[in-house]
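Methods: example folding runs. The two proteins below were folded one after another, and each record is reproduced exactly as written to the output file, sequence line first and structure-token line second.
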Amino acid sequence: MNKTLLRPTLTALMLLHGLLVQAATPGQEDVPPVRVFAEQPRAQMFVISPDGATLAYLLNKDGSSYLSTLVLGEQTPTVLLSTDNQKYSFRSLRWAGNQRLLAGARYPDYRYGVAGYESRLIAVDANGGNLNANLLDSAFRFQRPRNVPQFQDRILGKSAAGPDSVLLALDMERAAQPDVYSLDVKTAQLTRVASNTGGIRQWMADRDGEVRLGSGWRDKEMQLFVRAPGDKTWKTLSTWVADDYAQVAARALKPVGFDADGRYLYAFADHQGRQALYRIDTADPAFTRTLVHDDPQFDLTGQLIWSDWLKQYVGISYAGQYGRRVYWNERARALQDEIDRALPEKTNTVFSSSEDGLSLLIASTAPNAPSTIYWLERKSGKMRKIIDSHPALAERQMPMPRPVSITSRDGTVLHGYLTAPWNRAATTGPTPLIVLPHGGPISRDRGQFDVYAQLLASRGWAVLQVNFRGSSGYGAEFEQAGFQRWGMEMQDDLTDSVRWSIEQGIADPHKICIIGGSYGGYAALMGIIKTPELYRCAVSLNGVADLRDLLANAQHFDGYEIGAERIIGRWWGDRERLRQTSPVNHAADIRTPLLLIHGKQDRTMPVAQSRDMADALKAAGKRDYRYLELPLGDHQLSREEDRIEAFTEMERFLHRYLDQSEPN
């Protein structure tokens, strides 16, 4: 991480305003190059200062990232810090007052011989002065910790101590059990404001900067503690056993935030089989709940919408089918309607605001279009475009991901999305198909812009993304149906979806490939093991190959029993099932062309998973596979260079087996 001493260049200014790369319009070129899809958003992490005078953001160019500011009314941005993303990367950015910025930086490292990530907190003035490249290292000189926290950028919000302070969760006494401190960002002084009595992993503060809620677990018992406004006594809000699903349905809560007056807590909880939003009275000894909003089809898993000008929560945004916003405040709804009229046929989200709510940043996107950032000055009514996140795709007419419903062999209804090839209008009949299972597996594909899907569709292949059982978003019962069913019913759902696409005349049965990352990589491997007749080829990106080895690695981390063991199985007790459903043990059965890609710096899925799979294929005498290892690649392929290399290799591989020709 280094401070940039050169003055901002014209290139940086042009990039800020999206002028450097001329957006390609339909007809200029048939297929955009891989780089267009692999590059990082041109700029991200935008945030307005509380007084609305300065914009801070992260600018990305040629694999490097530049932390920058721009004063309203000026034309030249100031570059504060930069990184080449080889080791350090910026992960968060926020204001502490109107003049000072806090940036979270992450880097790979080892603790007690276990590979993981560390994070540190950087403080710098908006003009680039008073840089402190490791803020807590300075703080620790005054207060030496018994345990040096692994993560040092977990900011809860503002502190009641004043505008120059923030609340920070730090496990300085006991690893993985943080206390809460007020950190003065100018003097680097820490003051403990909430102590961990044992078992608390996460904290939440109210809008006034008072710590009000703690959550965690002991063994498998989940616990939530809360205190009423002005009360120093902690009370138990709820407890439940993580693997007792009746208790989970009846008692589980996911806190979202405190309302402006601090009395009411918003939280997600079960309502008729779906996760809904409730309002809980923390001053009532009975903790009375009021249902705020529910969706009969989808879990609510999004965020509350806070209005700085109204000083209250005004609605909720969540995934739904294509992204939904629900308002319970009419004035906030009216403002949203005005924005939507100015930017029609888009999902427009206010994601940063000045303290008075008069300066707003808006992300405008669509399921078939990347985001564009706008700056709205409400007093003048002026809205100006700041930047297209992906300029070369901004004017492209890309296909919409179409919702599909599929009935599996046992009658379970599956939901997903089908993206048509870009050239679909010029073709008739079945087309080559890519099956693209998501990672997680407790996750879901949504109707939003997806660079993977659009990259594949741009090459003339349809893309099918199915939320198999075990996916989140469709109720606890559907999610839990995937627990400890890896390679079984979860895989059958994908098989049934492929057969559905053939029956519907969508897919050419001789040109279907399966691609996935993480759990999706596991599904790709199991697909060519269980149903090799369905797939022409497969790609595993940072995928799972050995379930018992995965569990053995997971035991090094906190929460193993309520996480990996509950979802995958017991390392010893379920050893035979785990062996049978581990691709590494079936290498001899694989006869489908296979591409393995893995990042050496992957801290989520150890690179040994793909190395062992490649070794097993070699030992079995297989030749129709290739293993590509990316020396600096992480789990998300965050570095632009890694994404370009992986996407290029994947494109070449898929062309060979879906189009029977090498790309030009």
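Second run, written to the same file directly after the first:
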Amino acid sequence: MRHLSPRTTHRRVVGSLVAALLCAASLAAPAAALDSGGTGATGDASGASGVSGRSTAERASTAEANLPGDLALTPPMGFNNWNSTHCRAEFDEAMVKGITDIFVEKGLKDAGYQYVNLDDCWALPARDADGKLVPDPKRFPHGIKAVADYVHSKGLKLGIYTSAGTKTCSDIGFPGALGHEASDARQFADWGVDYLKYDNCNNQGVDAKKRYIAMRDALKATGRPIVYSLCEWGENKPWEWAADVGHLWRTTGDISDNWSSMLSIMKRNLPLAEHAGPGHWNDPDMLEVGNGGMADTEYRTHFSMWSIMASPLLIGSDLRKATPETFAIIGNKEVIAVDQDPLGKQGAVLSSEGGRWVVAKEMKDGSRTVALFNETGTAQPIATSAKAVGLPNADGYTLRDLWQHKSYNTAGKIAATVPAHGTALLRVSADGKWAKNPPAVELGLDGDPLVEAGEPAKLTSKVTNLGRTPAQQVSAAFTGPSGWQIKATSPSTASSLRTGKSLSTSWSVTAPPGTAPGSYDLTLKTAYRSPSGTRAESVLPLAARVVVAPPAGNSAVSDLPWMSTANGWGPVEKDTSNGESAAGDGNPITIGGVVHAKGLGVHAASTVEYYTGGSCEKVSAQVGVDDEKGLKGSVAFEIWADGKKAASTGVLTNADAAQAISAEVTGARTVRLVVTDGGDGTDSDHADWAEPVLSC
């Protein structure tokens, strides 16, 4: 999605043919030199001919000759201002120095964060008479070198930004480096810059590989070791050719501070594991942790998944305003150690069925880090095994919870009930020391806690011993908001649970009459002892949703209250198109020139969930890409009933008329309306559920 911020409006801008020819000519020498080695670009848009057949190892073996050695042997860690400030006035010398001081004062430097990076808008819009870049005297009155000197004095490093085009990505139009590579690289080196983010805007249609190689060679010629970050958005598959061009490369478009954006980017980066390694990393963009658009559970998932993917960890929030919880997330040294493991493996997906993901990462010490990630909107049990993640056979294993900072033993099963949008991050070792730890248990709840006010809901909790040793004096407790009635209707204690055995407890949960629809916090907890007497406990936060049964007959879906929504750009809109990022900024729903009065305007990736209570039979709608983005956008529509796909379309584009979709949902308690991208990313994927009807 390229309309995330003002800087993105200039992407893909193609200049005049004359400008393109001039720029191509300026790059001909380095490109020809590369071509003579048999790995050069041919001038086509992909910029990847001659290299796609080379293995990552083969490409990496040539990297030392083309890149400064011993740089980015683990994924770079640091800060970049863009996600929190864009081009606003608060991006200035005082901010950069303030972030530098916080790195030291808050222990982030000790945790491994090293680079303090300036993004776009640090320069004046015009070069000087000698063609040199000029720092904005209002933002940086003492110049960039003085800022670099300050950062270096704290034992940290400075990064800077420009674009492989005639201008940067800001709509103000700051000077890009295309045709100025040698001069700009020399300025950066003279200022003491240690890291360059090189964007892709206003590139005049010049072959991507030629542009990025030209700056690589210019940086190398300065003699200063500078980490080189290719911000090419993944358009030309840099993972296939950039291992000897840059130290890291963007695999996607820009991230935005919402769940759908983070999830979409994660899914595009995960399949690229084989291309990552020391000195050459997949970059799914900067961190949004602390910017306020996601819940802390979602930010922990963001940080966990970026770490297990061996991604660069570049803080994107203004640390001068950060909460203690933000510092707790970005400062978790056990999670950071996963990202920074010197073996340099990116985690590989073992399974992802039903939005329940298992991702495993091999560590240098022989252990495995395992992410149990729950994409869905309700708590889910997710499981794998020591054997499945690549560990050798053993009597028992040590299982370390990297967010709880507690160690347990397991007989081999690796499992957890993971809250909605949450991640359990576990490090598992066949280290022979497992017996000193209490047994791991899995605490779970059967069914989705959907509650109609005043009506008792029947739920069942389960405590399962995963350990090699028994769990003793086991108890289960279930609590909720004040005024709620929660009663155990079967035993909630057990004297002992052997390996694999469970304590199941039935509960009656009643919300007071008149309780407003919405989400309410519940807590499921178990306490137990190990054979040595060590007390342990496990806590599972849950969300009960108070719901209202839909009326009988045919109802316009947009008139019904939803249980939850997730949307790729701005909020879901009722009876208008998605519009842009603000609430209520949509237009009349229009597909193929036909205007529809009722419906939902969404943006991929999107999910809208409704409670049907087992009393409805059918959902139907006319669906398509909204006309508001012209010829852009490609999406697919799906209807899910109780977690099972009930209907779907193929990929639809703006060229398609509205298509009918319907699904039988008899007996289902919940229905989800899902829109995915068309396989080409989420740029301009504005989608409409026009005239949607629920029949009950």
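Comment on the second run: The longest strand covers residues 535-547.
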